[in-house]
Amino acid sequence: MASAKTLEHIFRDSISTSCVWAELHDWLLYDFTVHSISISRSVVCTLWLIWHVRNRQVRENTIVQIQEIIYRVWSYLLEFNAVHAKLLRRLIGPKRWRPSEGSCLKVNFDAAFHAPMLITCVGIVIKDNLGSVVGYTSIVTTQIPSAFAAEALACYHAI
Questions:
Q1: Which InterPro entries match (predicted)?
Q2: 3-class SS at 68?
Q3: Which among 33, 56, 95, 109 could bridge 158 via Cys, Cβ 3.0 to 4.6 Å?
């Protein structure tokens, strides 16, 4: 007996769809390699907006003219560039690692959190006053409810 086909099956398990996603992935990697970041950003924004408009057309039976899509891509990119420029002005600059004084050890830690799977990875590096690594570890933990909890867990493991 064949299992029932669902939309999830079409987008997750279908060999054809997997091939299309793989080709799109390869093409986007190529695009980012060959073109400037601004051209690649325009391509990705345009693709996203076409996808968004197509979804609205299917769900809400709306029709959007190509001129509106072009205008919206242009508007989104202008807004993105304005926000990006403001953020760059706020950056203080990279912080350099400084060794600890005397015989103390310096512990650096961080956490990465993946919300859909409630999973986190903690990384810890311990250095002496000469900057030599004396210890390190990474820990993967499941059932973490938030990014805040992931950072707290990283701090706990570092201590």
A1: RNase_H-like_EbsB-rel
A2: helix
A3: 109
